[in-house]
């Protein structure tokens, strides 16, 4: 029996072989990997906010948000923080080595709803990674969106992701980029304070804005509260939620979050939809 | 030409403030500038002033022996700097450094305290506004202490 022929060509459980073409160090523990398909130019099309299951052969499989430009369809880019055995193995891949990729999976940021609106991106820590494709999308299709406001918080200046890009994005018209850190040294000339303190300096038009938020859950709780204080309605706030995902397609139940499976119904949800769950600490 | 009274009235900290109160405060106010890197006040100095920031950024620092000062917050346009002038011992608990060139309105704390004692309506309104600022900064400090971006090892 030909085993390969027995596997449906689009089986979501089957990883596709990709090769590492670049590894860049973002911070002392966070790296950005660029992967290209080893099975030919079959395209790596995804929507901003989606994730993949990345298989480090012999070690394990990890859910990682895609952090690259959706317009670059010949590659997949991931920003990974090394916090455990599997993530350490992933960021230790060298150029030319292979990684298994399942996906793209999950829901995406609401591009259609954001059309003609100001887009407010609020990110904390590595939460900027799943939002970066949406920032690329807005900057690449500037005429389709209103103002872009990026508010980004990190632990310290050395923990800020994509520092050069933050500066470059701020140079675009109709774009405001503000970054803050929780702990600054004397050499840091930017803001110090939690990300919500940046709202004072943001030029917002709440009645014509849509907010996209990603970061630690506790941060998202305070950010959603502040967005509402600023005048945004709940149905114009979207969040990306993280849980321990395994199958990636809503079968195994590892990532169950109330009535939802994060891998299939998320990771991007409207705040209105998951607000009651965010306030339940046992979930 | 912008008058001090108008500048004070238009500062966000005094939004909705009674015009009569603003008029009372003008005699305690002065325009000040600080160059980038200059210390506006240092820990232990007499706290006899507070500042309405109009331009630039200020770092609030905690000095640490044998270490560089720790920046705990930055303040910018539209914010106020300093509340140690309100209560005894009227000494700065932290220090403030101009990160960039700073323009501000300095309000003489002793002068303002006297006016607040003479006019309790003014005093109550001023203390209420400071209480809101103190509450906001306490809240953001609590969030900083959570270290939410730290690795969960």
Brief sketch in words of this structure:
The complex is a heterodimer of chains A (283) and B (153). Chain A has 283 residues and is of the alpha/beta class. Helices cover 20% and strands 30% of the residues of chain A.
Number of helices of chain A: 8
Helix content of chain A: 10-25%
Q: What is the CATH topology classification name of chain B? A: Jelly Rolls
The shape of chain A is: globular
Strand order of the largest sheet of chain B: 1-8-3-6
Count all strands of chain A and give the number. Answer: 15
Give the SSE order of chain B as H and E letters: HHEEEEEEEEHH
Known CATH architecture of the largest domain in chain A: 3-Layer(aba) Sandwich
State Rg of chain A: 19 Å
Largest interface in this structure: A-B, 32 and 26 residues
Distance between the termini of chain B: 59 Å
For the secondary structure, the number of strands of chain B is 8
The main pleated sheet of chain A reads as: 7 strands, mixed
What is the strand content of chain A?
25-35%
Enumerate the strands of the largest sheet of chain A in spatial order, edge to edge or round the barrel.
Answer: 10-9-8-7-11-12-15
Low-confidence stretches of chain A: 1-8
Any idea what the CATH superfamily of the largest domain in chain A is called? Answer: Nucleotide-binding domain of ferredoxin-NADP reductase (FNR) module
What structural class is derived from the secondary structure elements of chain B? alpha+beta
Task: Write up this protein.
The complex is a heterodimer of chains A (283) and B (153). In chain A, the strands form three sheets. Chain A has a seven-stranded mixed β-sheet with strand order 10-9-8-7-11-12-15, with helices on both faces. Chain A has a six-stranded antiparallel β-sheet with strand order 4-3-6-1-2-5. In chain A, 20% of the residues lie in helices and 30% in strands. Chain A has 283 residues and is α/β, with parallel strands linked by helices. Chain A has helices at residues 3-6, 85-91, 111-114, 132-140, 163-170, 217-230, 262-265, 271-278; strands at residues 16-27, 30-37, 51-56, 60-65, 76-81, 98-105, 118-124, 148-154, 175-181, 191-192, 209-214, 237-240, 256-257, 260-261, 268-270. Chain B is α+β, with helices and mostly antiparallel strands and 153 residues long. Helix content of chain B is 34%, strand content 26%. Chain B has four helices and eight strands; from the N terminus they run ααββββββββαα. In chain B, helix 1 packs across helix 2 (19-26) and helix 3 packs across helix 4 (120-146). The radius of gyration of chain B is 16 Å and the shape is globular. The model of chain B has no long low-confidence stretch (mean pLDDT 91). At the A-B interface, strand 10 and helix 6 of A face strand 5 and helix 4 of B.
């Amino acid at each position: 029996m030909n085993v390969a022929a027995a596997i449906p060509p689009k089986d979501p459980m089957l990883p596709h072989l990709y090769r590492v073409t670049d590894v860049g160090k973002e911070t002392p523990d966070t790296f950005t990997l660029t992967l290209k398909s080893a099975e030919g130019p079959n395209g790596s099309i995804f929507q901003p906010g989606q994730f993949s299951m990345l298989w480090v052969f012999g070690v394990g499989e990890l859910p990682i948000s895609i952090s690259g430009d959706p317009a670059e369809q010949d590659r997949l880019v991931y920003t990974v923080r090394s916090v455990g055995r599997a993530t350490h193995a992933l960021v230790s891949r060298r150029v030319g080595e292979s990684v298994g990729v399942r996906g793209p999976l999950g829901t995406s940021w609401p591009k259609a709803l954001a059309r003609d609106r100001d887009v407010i991106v609020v990110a904390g820590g590595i939460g900027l990674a799943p939002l970066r494709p949406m920032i690329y999308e807005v900057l690449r299709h500037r005429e389709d969106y209103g103002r872009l406001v990026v508010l980004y918080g990190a632990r310290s200046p050395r923990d800020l992701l994509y520092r050069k890009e933050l500066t470059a994005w701020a140079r675009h018209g109709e774009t405001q980029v503000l970054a803050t850190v929780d702990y600054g040294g004397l050499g840091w000339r930017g803001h110090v304070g939690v990300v919500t303190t940046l709202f004072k300096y943001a030029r917002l038009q709440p009645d014509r804005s849509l907010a996209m938020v990603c970061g630690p859950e506790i941060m998202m709780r305070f950010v959603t509260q502040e967005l509402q204080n600023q005048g945004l309605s709940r149905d114009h706030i979207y969040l990306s939620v993280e849980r321990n995902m395994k199958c990636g397609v809503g079968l195994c139940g590892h990532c169950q979050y109330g009535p939802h499976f994060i891998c299939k119904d998320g990771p991007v949800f409207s705040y209105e939809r998951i607000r009651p769950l965010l306030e339940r600490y046992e979930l | 030409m912008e008058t001090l009274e108008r500048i004070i009235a238009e500062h966000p900290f005094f939004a909705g403030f009674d015009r009569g109160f603003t008029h009372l405060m003008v005699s305690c106010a002065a325009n000040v500038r600080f160059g980038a890197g200059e210390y506006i006040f240092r820990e232990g100095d007499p706290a006899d002033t507070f500042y309405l920031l109009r331009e630039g950024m200020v770092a609030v620092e905690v000095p640490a022996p044998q270490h560089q000062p720790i920046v705990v917050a930055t303040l910018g346009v539209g914010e106020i700097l300093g509340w140690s002038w309100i209560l005894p011992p009227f000494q700065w608990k932290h220090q403030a450094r101009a990160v960039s060139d700073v323009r501000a309105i300095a309000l003489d704390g002793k002068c303002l305290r006297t006016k607040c004692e003479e006019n309790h309506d003014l005093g109550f309104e001023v203390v209420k506004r400071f209480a809101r600022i103190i509450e906001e900064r306490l809240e953001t400090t609590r969030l900083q202490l959570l270290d939410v971006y730290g690795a969960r090892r």
